[in-house]
Amino acid sequence: MTTSPVRFVLKSMLFVCLLSFAVWAQAPATAPASGLLFPFNEVEIEAAKQEKALAVTQEYQAKEKEIKANTALPNNERFAQNNANFRHYLKEMEGLLKKDQREKARTLSVEKDVKGLRAKPALPRLYDMLALNAEQDAKLKDLNLQQQIKLRTLYHTGNYGDQERREETNYINEEMNKKYNDALTPDQRKQLAELKQADAVVKNIQLPPLYQKLNLNGGQTDKMRWLMYDGQKRFAAIKNDAALAPEARQEKLNAVQQDFDQKAFDLLDKNQKGKFDELVREANFRLPPFYAQLELTPEQETKIKETLLWQGKQVAALNAQANLTPEQKQERLGKINSELETRIKTALTPEQFTKLTNLLMEAQKKKQ
Fold first, then answer.
1. What separation in angstroms does the CA of 67 have from each of 27, 30, 81?
2. pLDDT tens digits along 268-300
3. How confident is the model over 292-348, as pLDDT tens digits?
């Protein structure tokens, strides 16, 4: 069986070109949950209601996934939708239970929440931006724990209507805010007031497109926005400093950008950092120079880039499989390059593909 000139050249040129890519992070697939969610998986639901309970759970999970995927939504709206979805789920599930079963489910939920809160004590939002001493830090974390326990208990209690629950929530928050303020110095209270005023602006800051694709949690999103807010203020101060020479101004602007990039990257977890690196590689990827001679349309250029990036991932994944013999790797590499040729040929016109073949063969001859 003979190898076509195109396939040979693609194997030798494009494969070599893309071997320079770093190993791509492979995110493990997440298996969908098959059973009931906590706490209902610990409540003995009657057999006749099991099918309905599973359907309600799956509906909740599908809606949750849809909300998380909608990165165009502001974080507060996404939170509100998630909250409404969860409340609907609780209502539907509790409707399947007897009174004692409902009470058991609520108790289990509160106990689990409290256990998690105690394991990771945290400061209230914005307070972590104040210069607190050790005593204040411990005091505020304890107050925050008390507040969250009260709110969680209220949240899982079915004895309130929506209006009553809102009123009780406001009462708890007002009561705890007084205690928070008592733990601060006058200067810290002033700084906190300034932070709260700026927070109205910060909440509306849109994250950079790359970060919107990383599924940041609420805390990460909040900190990222504050980093951007601080960076924007520093940028404005530098640009408005008439005493700076152009070179000095640019140097300071670059330093601010580098500081933001590093701090933003440090906010990410391991998987997010891997995904971020992958997105950066994709954003910075440029077609080899000879593609410029094909006069590609924007749509063709996008398809070719996607194809070459696809091949890069496939080759990296193949190279990472240490259990394969050289023969097995060569066989799989042949399949990858065969698919590569098919995809490129599909994206180009016959004339462009012929021209590409000639360009690649000429380049190969020069290297020999």
1. 21, 17, 7
2. 999 898 888 888 887 788 888 888 888 889 898
3. 888 889 898 889 888 888 888 888 888 888 888 888 888 998 898 889 889 988 999
Q: If you write DSSP's letter for every residue of 180-236 in order, what string do you get?
A: HHHTS-HHHHHHHHHHHHHHHHHTTPPPPHHHHTS---HHHHHHHHHHHHHHHHHHH
In this structure, what token pair is assigned to residue 93?
């599930």
Whether residue 211 contacts residue 224, with contact meaning beta carbons closer than 8 Å, is answered with yes
* pLDDT tier at 25, thresholds 50, 70, 90: very low
Looking at residue 160, what is its pLDDT? Answer: 63
Could you write out the three-class secondary structure of 266-302? HCCCHHHHHHHHHHHHHHHCCCCHHHHHHCCCHHHHH
The answer to whether 61 and 33 are in contact (CB under 8 A) is yes
3-state helix, strand, coil in the chain (%, to 5): 75, 0, 25
Per-domain residue ranges of the chain: 5-10+282-367
Q: Which long-range contacts (CB under 8 A, 24 or more apart) does 342-345 make?
A: 343/303, 343/307, 343/310, 344/10, 344/304, 344/307, 345/6
Other beta carbons within 10 angstroms of residue 157's beta carbon come to 13
With b meaning 16 or more CB within 10 Å and e meaning fewer, what string describes 13-25?
bbbeebeebeebb
**223-256: buried (b, 16+ CB within 10 Å) or exposed (e) per residue?**
bbbbbbbbbeebeeebeeeeeeeeeeeeebeeeb
Tell me: the pLDDT tens digits for 50-87?
Answer: 888 888 888 888 988 888 888 777 766 877 888 888 87
Alpha-carbon distance of 290 to 304, in angstroms, equals 13
For residue 236, what are the CA distances in angstroms to 198, 241, 247? Answer: 16, 9, 16
Which residues neighbour 304 within 8 Å (Cβ) at sequence distance 6 or greater?
Answer: 287, 291, 296, 344, 347, 348
